Amino acid sequence: MQIVIFETPEEVANHAADWVDTLLRQKPNAVLGLATGSTPIELYAKLVARHEQDALCFAKTVTFNLDEYFQIQPDSPQSYRSFMNYHLFNKVNIQKSNTYLPTCSETQNPRQQGLNYERLIKDSGGIDLQILGIGANGHIGFNEPSSSLASRTRIKTLTQQTLKDNSRLFGEDEYQPDKAMTMGIGTITDAKYVLLMATGKNKAEAVNNMITGPLSAHCPASALQMHENAIVVLDKEAASLLSDTEYYQWADSQNRKLNEKFGYYHNA
Ligand code: PGA
Fold first, then answer.
1. What is 2-262's CATH topology?
2. Taken in order 9, 11, 13, 15, is the CA torsion positive or negative?
């Protein structure tokens, strides 16, 4: 794991934007894995700014989102499709037909939809860079604690904690789905690079479990310990329970020197 710690959430977003930027300039038809939630909003704002100011181009980019609520209408304001359109897709030159979410309507079979999503990802050549957040309970995507570390795209029932954490996004009289279609942990860890962002004190325990805890379905993000190219980008608060931060910061400064010499993607 490459662990990078910054003072502020803004620096976290900037660092993640650098990764996407570098990838898209090297490989314009890259396949990106994308996440929703509060954490990546700043990243998307930075990508939009780079598109407008530095000609960052999404014309050939293909994207796969981690998850989508089960049986939600795509045009519902709470759907992750709406979130992505609002924060990124409507503001850059991406072709909407190249943007995928693991949808499942009332008339579709979730098992078949999951298999279809896996097939689409494979047929696109696999995900080059997967962006991730982390839940306060250690989930990645909607892979709640106890999810198989080998899981593939499927339907998951959300925990009470996740429902509570996400209830801020729903009005009092609005129906909040309690299930989602999500890439599995096996799907996520198939990506060539994974970059997880975490900010704020309420993520500190999950971050500590992910990095220093046992590899365990109880903390799904701990699966990243097995990934060849995992980058974890934290602000100080999210890193506040880690004991080895001095080493991580020292290693990061060395990595930057190596990256300058051998190329950005050499040493993740
Ligand atoms: P958040 O969600 O960015 O809204 O905190 C992250 C997640 O649940 O994966």
1. Rossmann fold (3.40.50)
2. negative
